[in-house]
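Sanity check record (used in CI):
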Amino acid sequence: MSDTGAPEMPAPPWRSRRRPAAPPRQPLSQERIVDVALRLLDAEGLDAVSMRRVAQELGTGPASLYAHVSGKEELFELMRERVAGEVRIPEPDPARWSEQLRETAREMHRVLSAHADIARVSMATIPTGPNAMRIAEGLLSIMLAGGVPPQIAAWTIDQISLYVTAHVYEASLHMARHRAHGGSAEEYMARFLGQVRDYFSSLPPDRFPNVVRHVGELMSGGGDERFEFGLDLLVRGLESYVAARPAGAGS
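Expected output for TetR family transcriptional regulator ActII:
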């Protein structure tokens, strides 16, 4: 019998060592499932996200996930909704409405671009989660504060979302191709654009005189510059609706 407070005796060398107790496993939840799915998305892209792979990362079986997520489609929706929560929306300022619209579109572009090809999830769907609706409400509030007619503002929400999403999605496709071909993204794009430029220049000038003559203009500008150009087209179009609105017209 050992004395109270006496040093613990070492185990004899012929006895097997006891394994340290494993840390208690965190309970499975929808939030943890989405956390892991987003980590996979950011590291490997959307194609890496499956119920089986997420379950593997959580140290459990796929069947246990279905108590919290109905399937991959709902998981993708939850991921998109989580990402939408990162978008910052300014308080509407009637004097700056057009610039605020540009700022919000840039913010949406920044957030989507930070999460690999999550933009794919937004294609051909209508987001209805609270974070997505917060963005829609913010865009609508900015435009209405600036005097954009309600119907035009309502349709513009869809057009801005589609424009931003398509732009980010295209960039993610180029990133996937560059990973498949190796090398840096800059090297891949320079090589790809160089090939396109050479092809345009080689076209028969009698059939495509303007394309051949304006290859420089067609190939100029990087992704960010072209995004700003498209955004400017959208906002300038909206400004024309405000300018054409009768003085004193209500919303």
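The chain has a mean pLDDT of 88. If this sentence no longer matches the regenerated tokens, the check is flagged for review.
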